[in-house]
Amino acid sequence: MLTENHHGLAAMLSVRGNTTTSNHSCGSDDYKYPLFSAFFIIILSIGLIANCLALYVFIWLTTKKNPNTVIMINLAFSDLSFVLTLPCRIAYYLMDGEWIFSDFLCRVSTYAFYVNLYTSIFFLTTLSVFRYVAILFPMRSKTIFTIKRAAVISVAIWAFVALTSSPFLLFGSHEQGGKIRCFEPKDVDSWKRILVMNYIALAIGFAVPFLVILLCYVRIVVRLRCLDRNLKRRKLSQKKSVAMILIILSAFFFCFLPYHVQRTVHLHFVLSSEPDCALTALMQKIIVYMTILAAANSCLNPLLYYFVGENFRKTLSLRERGSLSSSFKSISLAYVLETKNGKQRRNL
Q: Domains of the chain by range and CATH?
């Protein structure tokens, strides 16, 4: 709703300027349809396979679960839920911005994007806090964060994000330019409501979690640097784990940060500045790419599970070894049977 909105933006600028300018007066935006289609097909393909595999490993193959596992299960479920709405978006873009599904699906698809975006941020923040406590308070971490408490935290995150994102359910499909549109605000009042929601989401949904993560990692780095050399050797694997978290979460915030900054600038320009076609077209192009980056987080989270989730990595390794062992045993058994049969034929 805050993203694929060039038609709604052009229409609103026309109203503000008291002109009869068409939706395409600021230039054609047809470039966005193949762009969104191509990237969302890639995100759908990777995200569906990766998150289904992650849930399968976490739920059915991981025997020793911990609080991190609970959070990662919820994160994977959030990504999978969003990915499952992508076929509707892809169809919309392949049909050059014409919504052929129900109004309900339009609302759900819009809602799912923001629920996934902010549950991902909060679940990643929770994992960072868990890691912070585990490193700075290793003896108390097991009693502070239990599986039950991790489940309660997960439910609280889902409830909070679902409730605060519910206003997006008010934005359904509507007719514009001779087509049924979705993901595009229809009037000035819609943009004003979105601006208010943007600042709330920016503060609570992004800025606060981002500051918490930065604080956690600064404290972790300081703590590791203060360890003596002997302890450093014993903590080498833990240090590598923290370094990997920094790398992966940095990638995630390269996805989230540009999107939130550009979304805010875009909305402020729309509601505060005089219409400027050149600037409008430029900002629309930027927000298209930022939206794709934000949506791509559903494909990146499985990397977090593999490199940070020790149990996840061990389970996959054991599974691979088990498969190789079974294959080796099958080949060995076949070889033995063939050898015995050959000896029996020679004896005859």
A: 6-308 (1.20.1070.10)
In this predicted structure, what is the pLDDT of residue 2? 52
CA distances from 295 to 75, 85, 131, 196, 207 (A): 14, 12, 25, 22, 19
> Which residue ranges in the chain fall short of pLDDT 70?
1-29, 187-188, 227-241, 243-244, 248, 272-275, 309-311, 317-348
- pLDDT one-digit tens code per residue, 15-62: 444 333 334 445 566 788 899 999 999 999 999 999 999 999 999 988
Question: What is the residue type of 281?
Answer: A
Count of other CB atoms within 10 angstroms of residue 322? 10
Rg (alpha carbons) of the chain, rounded to whole number: 25
Among 3, 6, 2, 33, smallest CA distance to 22 is for 6
Question: Whose structure tokens read 């008291």?
Answer: 18
HEC sequence for the chain: CCCCCHHHHHHHHHHHCCCCCCCCCCCCCCCHHHHHHHHHHHHHHHHHHHHHHHHHHHHHHCCCCCHHHHHHHHHHHHHHHHHCCHHHHHHHHHCCCCCCCCHHHHHHHHHHHHHHHHHHHHHHHHHHHHHHHHHHCHHHHHHHCCHHHHHHHHHHHHHHHHHHCHHHHHCCCEEECCEEECCCCCCHHHHHHHHHHHHHHHHHHHHHHHHHHHHHHHHHHHHHHHCCHHHHHHCHHHHHHHHHHHHHHHHHHHHHHHHHHHHHHHHHHHHHCCCCHHHHHHHHHHHHHHHHHHHCHHHHHHHHHHHHCHHHHHHHHHHHHHHHHHHHHHHHHHHHHHHHHHHHHHHC
Give the global pTM. Answer: 0.83
